[in-house]
Amino acid sequence: MKTAFRFERLQSPLGPMLLFAADDALAGIHFDLQRHQPDTGGEWRHAARHPALRAAKAQLKEYFAGTRTVFDLPLAPVGTPFQRAVWAAIRTVGYGETITYGELAARAGAPRSIRAAGAATGRNPWGIVVPCHRIVGADGSLTGYAGGLERKRALLALEAPCALFARAA
């Protein structure tokens, strides 16, 4: 049986976004034209008043305004146990921080599975809320982001003032 998703759109400073929910939880957030974006045909219905979508939209606006550093949203994860472990590990990376894919794999309990952690990161359905933009290459370089490297760079720049303050403390 197919899930009947509810969706809403958000105009963000980095381009249009698709937010969608299953039941009472957020199932995904994608920038338009990013990799792995679902097709909104079939059982999808626009639902601007859906509680999870309204909350996500409000919290994303606060994030882009620089007034939110942590998200508090119900999530509806659909993935393998390893993907779920990686996504949970990504959520431990604080605002303004970055870690490498190697560190992410270790936090997910599979320190030797760096490439698999990278692949699971690429399948993260909740861009920004599960902050996969904070994961970088072993040398600190920006690698892989389903929403595009320019957006990853912009998200890290948005969080940079916090990172600079944390390093100075």
Would you give an account of this structure?
The chain is of the alpha/beta class and 169 residues long. It has 5 helices and 6 strands. It is globular, with a radius of gyration of 16 Å. The C terminus is likely disordered.
The SSE string, one letter per element, is: EEEEHHEHHEH
Shape, per Cα inertia axes = globular
- The span between the termini is 53 Å
Strand content: 15-25%
Uncertain stretches: 163-169
CATH superfamily of the largest domain: Winged helix-like DNA-binding domain superfamily/Winged helix DNA-binding domain
- Average pLDDT rating: 88
- The number of domains is 2
- CATH-scheme architecture of the largest domain: Orthogonal Bundle
- Provide the CATH top-level class of the largest domain: Mainly Alpha
Question: Could you give a short description of this structure?
Answer:
The protein is an alpha/beta fold.
Features:
single chain, 169 residues, alpha/beta, Double Stranded RNA Binding Domain, Arc Repressor Mutant, subunit A, four-stranded mixed beta sheet, two-stranded parallel ribbon, 6 strands, 17% strand, disordered C terminus
Topology:
Blueprint: E1 6-12, E2 15-22, E3 25-31, E4 45-46, H1 51-65, H2 81-90, E5 99-100, H3 101-107, H4 114-122, E6 135-136, H5 149-168
Parallel strand pairs: 1-4, 5-6
Antiparallel strand pairs: 1-2, 2-3
Helix pairs in contact: 3-4
